[in-house]
Predict the structure.
Amino acid sequence: MDYFPVFLKITGENCLVAGGGKVALRKMQSLLRSGGRVTLVSSELCCELTTLSNENAFVWLPRQFEPNDVEGCRLVIAATDDAQVNQQISAVAHAHNIPVNVVDCPELCSFIMPAVVDRSPVVVALSSGGGSPLLTRLLKVKIENLLHPAYSRLAELAERNRRRVKAAIGDAVARRRFWEALLQGSWADMVCAGRDAEAQACLEKALCGDAGSTANTGMVYLVGAGPGDPELLTLRALRLIQEADVIVYDRLVSAGVMARARLDAEKIYAGKQRSRHSLPQNEINHLLVELACQGKRVVRLKGGDPFIFGRGGEEIETLMEQGIPFQVVPGITAASGCAAYAGIPLTHRDYAQSCLIITGHLKNGEVAELDWKRIVNPAQTLVIYMGLHGLRTICETLIRSGCSPNIPAALIQQGTTPEQRVITGELESLAQLGEQLDNNIPTLIIIGEVVSLHDRLSWFGR
Ligand code: SAH
């Protein structure tokens, strides 16, 4: 490490900023946020600095820098647009042994300022040693996405209760376990959901020895993993995947999504391949209950959205019956993911005013009991899940029910992934096109005039 990372206390301390532009403004704002007493030396101010000056947020010396400006300062920041002045400030500060930062000039600095993710009192500081500020900024965005804004309140709540917990649990190891369970369990989730009062009440109950009221109870998160591209995970899904003790996942969950899980998280494959169920549904339901009863944070990860042909409803019914706390996190369903990545808008002013999602799963070789005559509508896009196996029967049924044999149609395989394949044709030739495809690869069928837009609008993989 080229720099020694520290967090400096500057509350009430004198700090000097030289410069009156936008860069000086940013430095000023972070000094003020940390409670510094700032003097700013510059003949001119940008308009935001003028506003702050009018609010007496800092003392303004409306002139050029003078060497004795640094006297009594805890730190100095040079942010003028004059390289010579910046150099002079650096030299004077060094001579007085005062830490100095010269913006964008690491060789003149005795300290550098990190990119900051502020969840005060939790603060993450990032630095590339001045080598690549852009990289640190990009990393900062990633970390910001990971750290729910509620971490601020979580830390405050923990701080507020620290002494009481210490008094109630004398043994240091037991105390650490107690905090670990709280901060990683459903208690922390309560705070993230803004239920601070409830969280406080749970903590108090737990301190009175009511173990059942704390994070020791497991929790099940029914999470939508989206159609394949891990970048399509919601922020919430990503956070839960990264925090899970156990992930029970099915076949549609892509390897890219699973790669986002913690290495040491337990991963249980619950399968489900067409007519080759790895774990029967009721066993999955009971597995979730059992894992939660062991006090684990369980993520039940499902392709797409858990409530769209995902049996999510059945799984949470069992949890409900058994009194296991749970949450449902929606995901991008195959229809919207595949359509977007194939350049096929599901609705379009000129072609389709509605969109219908149906299952094409056959029961005993027959298409589902759907009102096919009502399904057929030239101004509506029809999206069929699980329809490849029964494609011929579906197409024949549609045409028999009045659908035009020439309506455009598409088959999308492994949508949103690098392996995505889009095959387009007309309804009457679709079954033949589908015959070349592997039945075990997830395939979505889109039928409707909007498919004709694919040639023009397709963008992914080009
Ligand atoms: N809950 C899921 C759907 C589960 S049913 C969701 O909301 O997307 C399984 C069917 O979804 C598959 O047979 C296929 O028709 C469709 N599907 C899911 N992911 C897909 C993908 N990446 N590409 C194409 N079809 C997909």
User: Anything to note?
Assistant: The chain is about 35% helix and 20% strand.
